[in-house]
Amino acid sequence: MINRQSHQQCIEPECLARYALDERIYACSRCGGLLDIETKPTAEVESLKKLWRERRSSFEPRDLSGVWRFRELLPFTDDAPVVSLGEGNTPLYDAPGSARYCKLNSLKLKHQGANPTGSFKDAGMTTAVTQARLLGTRLVGCASTGNTAASLAAYAARADMLCAIIVPEGQVSHAKLAQALDYGAVVLEIEGNFDDAMRVIRELAEQGNIYLVNSINPFRIEGQKTVMIELAEQLGWEMPDHLVVPGGNLGNSSAFGKGLQELLQLGLLDRLPQITVVQAEGAAPFADLFQKHRNELRDGEIPSEIKNVARPKTLASAIKIGAPVSWKKAWRTLSWTQGRVLTVNEQEIADAKAIIGRDGIGCEPASATTVAGIKKLVAAEIIREDQRVVAVLTGHLLKDSEYVINYHRGKLTVTTEAVEPQPITATFGNRPVSVKADAVQIREQFQRLLDLKVGGPT
Q: pTM for the whole thing?
């Protein structure tokens, strides 16, 4: 069931220790480094594009998954007991309104919020929970700001496994919490933040009490890397000039870099996009690392450590993380793609999110960091208006509906070091209008609507 041509390997250049796929470890036992899965394709490289394309018309369960359709690059054999909810196959949208906002000729949005539980986590959870099943695991768990919890709970339910989730009390949107509860997970709310939850769950996992499926688990990264295979296929195997992603725990940027590098090495791509990671100003340890060590990045060196943020602050709760566990893999992605990291503030995130909504797409706040970041990169002339740009949206609009309602009603605020919460301006607000149940008044509202200038905000 396990691909014997594959193995786990430490990413530290001076170590590179190897481990069998069925060893239940999350870090190198020699040096503590993060682990990769090294896999040789199980089919001739020349036939892969044709094979993957043909599977799109197949009704075989694995072919219906936008992850398992690319299984030749995954570390499992054909008889693996796959746990799937039909994840992947996410749309690549043209976003003309967002392009105008950023002052680009065109912009495409790869929307991972179209996954079964509404976030990109499903792409990695299908492979992580499949590995858990192969290992004979009964109890799986994670620390979460919400999306991982919802995804793991759903896939654990599908696999008939017990599921325990640790979340920071009062810091997870009710929509995400509702998903985890409805799928049957045991939810443990702790005092502290996500980083505290992560510390506890890692300690428990090292003791063997639970199988950990956060992005430190390399099998999670294997599923998430297929997002890049699907994107390359959607673009006719010609990658954009720039790929922009949100940055929280940095599993996505790690996975995307790994997927792209593998495609390049196999000859399925002839160039890589420049990857930009965007973080919220109040939760930006990776951006701070980049600013301090960007010259080392050009030289191919990896910093010895990252300075964590003790109390990360942002309304974009999915990226409210001060101690990202995957930062070394994400740094490697920057090195491979000559990438960069930048920050955006709460106002920029909120406005970009509203603009994405005007394209009829919608996303959760963390996703909107991408469009906010692109706007800044264009203004700084780092991205040219005629270049091809793709932004990855990581979560569905309804993941945090309270944020949306409060923004459009002009009630969204952010807590700072000041005594009073600071309001966020509803620059593109769409406040509900209160009218009587009277045809004349409602007709007047219709006429005001018709009198408005056609076209969205720019």
A: 0.94
